[in-house]
C-alpha cells in the first residue's frame, strides 16, 4: 500500500511554525519549506551570522515572542522535515516544484498550508529607483540580519506602523535618523484611541516610540505630499510639500513603504478563488474563518492571506492546521479552534483601527508624474502606462500587462502590481476593485532556466 504524501507547509514564519507544531502534535510529519536560511519569517528573522547583539536588541518588546517561536520550532526537530533555503516556485496537480540547493525537487503533497507572508507595498515616486532607496522592510532586514544601516543620515517615508517602528529601531541602534515623513495627516492618528480598549499595550507602545523619536530630535512630519527623491548617482536629498510649503532635506538613505501586501501567487497557482478585499485594497484568496480555501486540502494562514500582523499569524497558523486535521477526521480540539477564531476576530477589529490611522494615499494615481518609472524590471514609466491605457482602451490589468509589459519582469508584478492597478483604476475612472488582478505564473520568483526545464521534463515523465 502506498504511503499518504506529507502535508506541505510553505513558510517558517509565525504562521507556518504554529501550523507545524499543531500538525506534529496530532502525529503528522509535515514538510516545512522556506526560502530563508533560518526560521522566524519577517518579524522574527534571525541574524545571518552571530554578533554581539542580544535578542532584546534585535526584537525589542517582541524578544520573548521571538525566542519562544525559535525555541518551539527547534523542539520539533526530528518530528518534521524542514528545508531552509528552499523556494517553492510552482504547483501543479498536487505536486510542488521546489528549488533547494540549486536543484529542483518535485514533492507530492496531501494538504498544502500556505503561510507565505507579505512584502512592502510600494507606490513609485520620482527617484525611488536611485541607489540608497530601500523599502521599509528592506531597511529593517539590513539592520536585523546584518546589523547595518541603509545610510549615515536616513529618512523614513510612507505610512503604516512599520514606518515609526523602523525609524525607532534605527534610532535605538545608534543610526542617525534625519526625519520621519508620514503621508497621512496628523489627525488620522486620533483613530488609534479607538484601539485602546482592544490592545492598549500596542497603542501605548506606538505612542512611546513616537515620543522617543521626537525627544531625540527626529523631525516628524505629517500630511507629506508629492515626495521626490533627488540625487545624481544616488540619494542626496528628499523634497516634499506640506501645508502648501516646499521642503527639502539632505539624506543618503531612504526607507519607503505604504503598509504591506500579501504574497498570494501560490494560492493562485493552487487554483484558489479570489475576491477583492477593500481593507487591503487587493484581491485575496478566499478563506473561511479556519483558513480553508475554495480548493479542498489547501489552507491559508498569516499575512499571505490578508495583512493582520504576527500575533494573528501565529493564531491563524494553528487554526488552519486544526482545520486540516479536522478534514482528515483527526478530531482536533474544537474549543481551542473557537478561542483562536475569537482572538483573530478581535485582531481584525484592531486592523480596521490601524487602517484609519495610517490611510492609503488615495491621491497617488492622480499626482504621479508621467516621467516616474512604474515598473523597474521593464523600465516602464507612468506616462507610458497612461498612454497604453488610452491607446488600447484597456480596462483590465492582465490586458495592461500585455500591452505595456508592466508586471512581466523579474518581480512578476509583486512590486509594481498595486501601483499599476491604482493607475488603471484612476485612468478609467473606476474603483480599484473593478480592474482585476494580475494572474500568477510559474516560476513565481526567478529560477535558473535549466532548473525549470528539468522540472518540466520530470513532470512529463
Ligand atoms: C520586511 C518586513 C518586516 C516586518 N517587520 C515587522 C516588525 O518589525 N514588527 C511587526 O510587528 N511586524 C512586522 N512585519 C509584519 C510581520 O512580519 C508579519 O505580520 C508576520 O511576520 C506574518 O507572519 P507570517 O508567518 O504570515 O509570514 P512571514 O513572517 O512573512 O513568513 C513567511 C515566510 O514564508 C517564506 N516564503 C514565502 N514564499 C515562499 C515560497 N514560495 N517558498 C518558500 N518560502 C516562502 C518567507 O521566506 C517567509 O520566511 C514585517 C513585514 C515585512 C514584510
Any descriptors?
globular; 35% helix; single chain; FAD/NAD(P)-binding domain; alpha/beta; Arc Repressor Mutant, subunit A; five-stranded parallel sheet; 461 residues; binds flavin-adenine dinucleotide
Describe this structure in a few short sentences:
This protein has 461 residues and is α/β, with parallel strands linked by helices. The chain has helices at residues 14-25, 55-59, 63-74, 136-146, 161-172, 200-215, 265-269, 310-327, 334-357, 364-367, 382-392, 397-404, 417-427, 449-460, and strands at 8-10, 31-33, 81-83, 86-92, 95-100, 103-108, 112-114, 118-120, 133-135, 154-159, 177-182, 219-221, 225-230, 237-242, 245-250, 253-258, 260-262, 274-277, 282-285, 298-300, 373-375, 380-381. It folds into 3 domains: 8-119 and 261-354, 3-Layer(bba) Sandwich (FAD/NAD(P)-binding domain); 122-258, FAD/NAD(P)-binding domain; 364-430, BFD-like [2Fe-2S]-binding domain (Arc Repressor Mutant, subunit A, Orthogonal Bundle), CATH 1.10.10.
Task: Explain what the structure shows.
The chain is of the alpha/beta class and 461 residues long. The protein has three domains: 8-119 and 261-354, FAD/NAD(P)-binding domain (3-Layer(bba) Sandwich), CATH 3.50.50; 122-258, FAD/NAD(P)-binding domain; 364-430, Arc Repressor Mutant, subunit A (Orthogonal Bundle), CATH 1.10.10. It has 14 helices and 22 strands. The model has no long low-confidence stretch (mean pLDDT 95). The structure holds flavin-adenine dinucleotide (FAD). Residues 10-16, 33-36, 41-43, 87-88, 115-120, 137, 140-141, 162, 165, 260, 263, 266, 302-304, 309-310, 313 line the site of flavin-adenine dinucleotide.
Amino acid at each position: 500500500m502506498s504511503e499518504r504524501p506529507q502535508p506541505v507547509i510553505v513558510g517558517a514564519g509565525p504562521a507556518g511554525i504554529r501550523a507545524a507544531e499543531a500538525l506534529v502534535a496530532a502525529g503528522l510529519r509535515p514538510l516545512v519549506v522556506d526560502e530563508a536560511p533560518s526560521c522566524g519569517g519577517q518579524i522574527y528573522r534571525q541574524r545571518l551570522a552571530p554578533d554581539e547583539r542580544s535578542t532584546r536588541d534585535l526584537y525589542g518588546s517582541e524578544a520573548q515572542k521571538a525566542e519562544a517561536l525559535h525555541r518551539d520550532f527547534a523542539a520539533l526537530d526530528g518530528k518534521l522535515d524542514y528545508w531552509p533555503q528552499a523556494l517553492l516556485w510552482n504547483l501543479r496537480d498536487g505536486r510542488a516544484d521546489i528549488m533547494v540547493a540549486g536543484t529542483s525537487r518535485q514533492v507530492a503533497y496531501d494538504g498544502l498550508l500556505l503561510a507565505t507572508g507579505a512584502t512592502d507595498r510600494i507606490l513609485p515616486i520620482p527617484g525611488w529607483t536611485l541607489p540608497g532607496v530601500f523599502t521599509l522592510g528592506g531597511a529593517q532586514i539590513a539592520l536585523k540580519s546584518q546589523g547595518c544601516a541603509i545610510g549615515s543620515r536616513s529618512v523614513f517615508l510612507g505610512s503604516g506602523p512599520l514606518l515609526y517602528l523602523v525609524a525607532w529601531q534605527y534610532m535605538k541602534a545608534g543610526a542617525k535618523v534625519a526625519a520621519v515623513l508620514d503621508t497621512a495627516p496628523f489627525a488620522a492618528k486620533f483613530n488609534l484611541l479607538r484601539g485602546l480598549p482592544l490592545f492598549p499595550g500596542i497603542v501605548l507602545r506606538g505612542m512611546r516610540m513616537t515620543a522617543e523619536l521626537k525627544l531625540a530630535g527626529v523631525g516628524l512630519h505629517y500630511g507629506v505630499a508629492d515626495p521626490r527623491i533627488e540625487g545624481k548617482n544616488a540619494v542626496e536629498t528628499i523634497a516634499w510639500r506640506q501645508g502648501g510649503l516646499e521642503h527639502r532635506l539632505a539624506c543618503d538613505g531612504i526607507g519607503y513603504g505604504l503598509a504591506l501586501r500579501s504574497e498570494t501567487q501560490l494560492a493562485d497557482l493552487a487554483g484558489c478563488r479570489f475576491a477583492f478585499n477593500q481593507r487591503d485594497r487587493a484581491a485575496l484568496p478566499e478563506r473561511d474563518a479556519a483558513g480553508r480555501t475554495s480548493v479542498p486540502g489547501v489552507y491559508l494562514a498569516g499575512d499571505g492571506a490578508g495583512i493582520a500582523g504576527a500575533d494573528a499569524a501565529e493564531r491563524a497558523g494553528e487554526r488552519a492546521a486544526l482545520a486540516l486535521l479536522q478534514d482528515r477526521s483527526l478530531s482536533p480540539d474544537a474549543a481551542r479552534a473557537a478561542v483562536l477564531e475569537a482572538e483573530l476576530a478581535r485582531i481584525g477589529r484592531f486592523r480596521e483601527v490601524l487602517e484609519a490611522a495610517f490611510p492609503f494615499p488615495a491621491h497617488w494615481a492622480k499626482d504621479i508624474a508621467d516621467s516616474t518609472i512604474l515598473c523597474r524590471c521593464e523600465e516602464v514609466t507612468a506616462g507610458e502606462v497612461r498612454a497604453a491605457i488610452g491607446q488600447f482602451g484597456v480596462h483590465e490589468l492582465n490586458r495592461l500587462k500585455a500591452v505595456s509589459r508592466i508586471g512581466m519582469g523579474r518581480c512578476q508584478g509583486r512590486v509594481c502590481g498595486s501601483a499599476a492597478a491604482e493607475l488603471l483604476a484612476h485612468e478609467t475612472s473606476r474603483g480599484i476593485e473593478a480592474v482585476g488582478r494580475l494572474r500568477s505564473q510559474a516560476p513565481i520568483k526567478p529560477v535558473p532556466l535549466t532548473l525549470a526545464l528539468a522540472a518540466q521534463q520530470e513532470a512529463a515523465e
